[in-house]
Amino acid sequence: MTLKLTRRATLKGMLAGTAAFATIGLLPAWAQQKGGTLTVGLTYEIDTMNVYSTGFLGDAQAAVVEGLLAPDKDAKYVPVLATEVPTIENGGIVVSEDGKTMKITYKLRPGVTWHDGKPFTSADVKYTWEAVKDEKFIAESKDGSAEVASIDTPDELTAVVNYNTILPTFASTLFTFGIFPKHLLEGTDLNTSSYNETPVGTGPFKVTEFQRGQYVVTERYDGYWKKAENGDALPYLDKLIFKMIPDTNTLITQLKSGEVNLVVQTPYSQAKQVEGIDDIELIKGPLLSWQHLDFNFKRPSLADIAVRKAIAAGIDRNVLIKAQGGFPEAIKSPVVPVFEFYDPNTPEVAYDPAAAAKLLDDAGYVVGADGIRAKGDEKLSYTFMVQAGRADDELAQQVIIAQLKAIGIEATADNKTGVAYREARYNGGYDLIYGRWITSADPVYSVFWGTGGANNGQSYSNPTLDAAFQKFENTLDPAVRKDAAIEFQKILAEELPTISLTTNVALIAKTKKLKNFVPNPTNMTNFVDTAAWYME
Amino acid sequence: MSLGYIVRRLLGAIPLLFGISLILFTIVHLAPGGPLDVYVDNPSVSKEALDQIAKAYGLDQPVPVQYVLWLKSMLVGDWGYSIRTGRPVLSEIVLRLGPTMELGGLALLLSLLIAIPLGIISASRRGSKLDGTLTLVSFAGISTPVFWLALLLQLLFSVHLGWLPSAGYKSIGDGSFPDRLAHIVMPAAVLSLATIASWSRFIRSGMVDVLNQDYIRTAYAKGRGERGVVFFHALRNALIPAVTVIAVDFGTVISGAVITETVFAWPGIGRLFMESMDGRDYPMLMGLMMMGSVGIIVANIVADLTYAALDPRIRYG
């Protein structure tokens, strides 16, 4: 909130200043300056520039390729190539009379051109769906393509998407990732196309050089459609360069030597070093991922709410946070606080090992000779799985094991990787599981705890919760969704099929000269709004 | 040294390569994790989508079947497609081979040019203060971790002095000879350090052995000066054990390149290996390791041939 206010205030101040100077014909050098090169250091090697097939979040891609909508800094959708976000109120979404299907009409922005100068039209939108849906195209982001029945293009600037179902999360799928240029790609093989290295988009920057394993150079696209509020042509920067530097020590060295000016994924362990560099500032941005401890309901004692509540009271999040360098933040709901659907009044089980012990005593779990509680044959001794090889997760696991031991519960690490881990997670091959989920800006939670949800390996089923999810995920009315969100967060916090532990922050190291940079928590990355960035 | 010998050695390498490929394939698949692990935190990548990707790359087949399929296509010259980038393995490797050859070649050249004189000086001044100092420096060189030295050099030359770029292959929009030279100096120095240190030790001990031989005394007796004895009579004989070490070290240079290239963001084979290992890119890993194996086998054959060139008493036929 403070960030927003100060930013707006600063901007206003600047605009006023500019206007004042402009009247006497002197534009100050410190206003939004055109020009300059920003060099970004990425810790991974860009595999492909195609937003639908990259295995990473599309950082460089977001500066080049645009979608119809994009999530902003508050994880809310804003129009990009569309002129508005379709809603029921503005007539963009029309639900069929039987309530089973919907029709979304996108009004497209006029005057948008591809980097080769050709106009962007509704035919490109239709082609994007056809290309992504095509079975021959290997991609992991085909979300939302199967739910589309057909697309009508009554004119060049209108695309009517006919869905075969109600899909409230439509904004976080297909057309938000990016639009393909039909005139360049139709009839080509997208798996091998040169588009994967030098994509032609509508974004503020165009790719001029792609050197595999080295860098991607993007340059200002002079025909970019967007203008700044004060009428300035955007983008301000001349060049945006993405360098691929796999070694994080080297990355920090490059920040020190000025060869790199922006790193969006500073490892927690390097934060101290970055703080000491002149001209570089470290800012924190929220992320949509969170860590959680889940239970397998096939174990009778874990199906007992008293045990789950005791475990929740037995875990000290502060220790978990310290074990991870002090950077993650404590949470009580899987809906992370960035979201407007987050309910700050969600009940919380406070850390209180004495209360935990009492809960277990009252429920009849008696401490045995070995210090482990049991009730009849059911001993509170569990297998505990995290993904093997993830240092942070294994560390958190050890912390939790120690804390559970203090309240008389034994957990034994049973870690797996690869296929074995995935199978175990889907099929409930664990008693306790600690892991991490990342959602899009338009999250769906029934996949985790809904009855039969795709990621529900816990055998958890709660009809009341299902009903709340159903309402949240199949309604387009924001007020109804908000109520449903409050309801399911309350149920989750009281029934505890999952304990939401911590959420993450992105440590962004940037040159102090870079202005207008606003962290974006979503999977659309920080590079979704590069047009407004400028160098002082 | 005949052509027949070379052909026989190459033919002999074929069953060896089969064995190597089987072992490598097994080890690569034994390592925990898999290529689809990158999607593990993302709930919107459904099990169905993962199954579909697995099917597209044949990952749904049992490992022995995968091996047979891989071998079959390899035999007809199809190296397969990288799971990470979706591009053909062979063209990815060819793209990365150039920078590695430049870096490895320069490092090899530096190593030879420095290690041989150092070894000779040490041996011919055995027991002197100079020899002691060189011995100490060599052991320091052998024991220095590559990544640590790289970090120190980067801090000194890039951050404090600002003379050299800290990493990368060339400057964007440049790539002239001086620019590329500035980029290659540090990685080549780091990559050659360990080999300079160990090779100079081998050359020194080889020289020491040879200098105690009767024929050296004879050479002195017939009135030859020290320089003539050392370079004409001793060096050739002392080089034979060193050649073995250098050939065996070919593998070390490759594995050293993995770290050096990663630290210096050098777009070569070693770095590609690292990225492929992280992503469990099986086809790419197999392609890289098979190429490395061929390289080591060839280096050994070249070493054997070099013996014959250095010592006329050694004959293959």
UniProtKB/TrEMBL annotation, chain B:
InterPro entries: BPD_transp_1_N, MetI-like, MetI-like_sf
One cellular component (GO) term of this entry: plasma membrane
Transmembrane segments: 12-31, 103-124, 136-161, 181-199, 239-266, 286-310
Subcellular localization, as worded in the UniProt entry: Cell membrane
All copies of domain ABC transmembrane type-1, residue ranges: 97-307
Gene3D superfamilies the record matches: MetI-like
Annotated GO MF terms: dipeptide transmembrane transporter activity
Membrane topology: Multi-pass membrane protein
Record keywords: Cell membrane, Membrane, Transmembrane, Transmembrane helix, Transport
Chief location category: membrane
Pfam families: BPD_transp_1, BPD_transp_1_N
Protein family: Belongs to the binding-protein-dependent transport system permease family.
Entry protein name: Diguanylate cyclase
Organism for this UniProt entry: Devosia insulae DS-56
